[in-house]
Specification:
mainly alpha; globular; single chain; 254 residues
C-alpha cells in the first residue's frame, strides 16, 4: 500500500509541476522560443494522464505506454538540442560541426534501434526491443549533449541565458537519474529494486524544480533576444581555432 501511494504521489505531483511549467511558459510567451520543449512538456503530461487512466486495464495500458514512449524519447532529445542550438548557434556555421553533431545523435539512436531489432531478446518482440533500446540510448545521448553544453560554456564563456541553461541542466539531471537506475538494475538486480524503480521519478521531481526555477525567474534584459551576429560568429570561430591549436600542440608533445 505504501508503494502504491508513493507512486501515485510522485506521478500526480509531476503532472501538477509540469502543468505549472507549461502555463508559465505561456504567460512569458516562451512557446515560440522553445516549441520543442513546450511539446515535450505537453506530451509528458498527456502520456502520464493516459497511463494513469488505463492503469487498471493492463492490456490497454501496455499499448498506451509503448505507443507514446517513442514520442517522449524523440522530443527529449530534440528539446535539449534546441537549447544547445540557441546558445551555440555560431558553431553551426562550421560545416563539419553542422554535419557531425546532429549526425552523431541520429547515428547513435539509429544503431541502438537497429541492433535491438536485428537481435531482440528472447522475451521481447522486435518492436518492443527497438523502442526500449532507443529509449536507453537516448538517455546517454541527452547526457552527452548536456556535458558538451557545459564544457563548451566553460571553454567559450557563453553568455548566461536563464532558460536555455536551466532547461539543459534539468535534462542532464533526469538523464543521469535514468542512467543510474539502469546501472543499479543491471549490476544489482532485485537487491535494490526499490531504488532502481523510484530513483528516476524522484530525480525527475528535481528536474522539474530546476525548470520551474527558470520559469519563475527573471532573465536579464540583454539576453531576451538570442543574437547571432557576425561579431559573435567571428569571436566563436577565433576562440575555437585557438583551442584547436592548443590541443594540437598538446597532442604533438605526447
Amino acid at each position: 500500500m505504501l508503494m502504491y501511494w508513493l507512486g501515485l504521489t510522485l506521478q500526480w505531483g509531476s503532472v501538477a509541476l509540469l502543468a505549472w511549467i507549461f502555463i508559465l511558459m505561456g504567460r512569458k510567451h516562451l512557446y515560440h522560443r522553445f516549441p520543442l520543449f513546450a511539446a515535450y512538456i505537453a506530451v509528458v503530461i498527456v502520456r502520464t494522464v493516459l497511463c494513469s487512466v488505463f492503469l487498471s486495464r493492463p492490456h490497454a495500458y501496455f499499448y498506451v505506454f509503448w505507443i507514446t514512449q517513442p514520442f517522449e524519447t524523440l522530443l527529449a532529445v530534440l528539446a535539449v538540442h534546441e537549447s544547445f542550438l540557441a546558445v551555440f548557434r555560431g558553431f553551426y556555421h562550421l560545416t563539419w560541426f553542422r554535419l557531425l553533431f546532429p549526425g552523431a545523435i541520429v547515428t547513435a539512436l539509429a544503431y541502438a534501434a537497429w541492433k535491438a531489432w536485428a537481435h531482440p531478446p528472447i522475451h521481447a518482440t522486435r518492436w518492443g526491443a527497438a523502442i526500449i533500446s532507443t529509449a536507453i540510448a537516448s538517455q546517454y545521448v541527452v547526457l552527452g549533449i548536456c556535458i558538451l553544453f557545459f564544457f563548451l560554456e566553460r571553454v567559450f564563456s557563453a553568455r548566461w541565458r536563464l532558460y536555455e541553461f536551466r532547461i539543459v541542466f534539468g535534462f542532464g539531471i533526469a538523464a543521469l537519474g535514468n542512467v543510474a537506475a539502469g546501472l543499479i538494475r543491471s549490476e544489482l538486480g532485485q537487491r535494490l529494486s526499490f531504488l532502481s524503480t523510484y530513483l528516476p521519478a524522484l530525480v525527475f521531481l528535481l528536474t522539474l524544480a530546476v525548470w520551474l526555477s527558470a520559469m519563475v525567474g527573471d532573465e536579464p534584459a540583454q539576453t531576451h533576444v538570442i543574437a547571432d551576429t557576425a561579431e559573435e560568429r567571428r569571436a566563436i570561430l577565433e576562440s575555437l581555432r585557438y583551442h584547436m591549436q592548443v590541443l594540437r600542440r598538446f597532442v604533438g608533445k605526447k
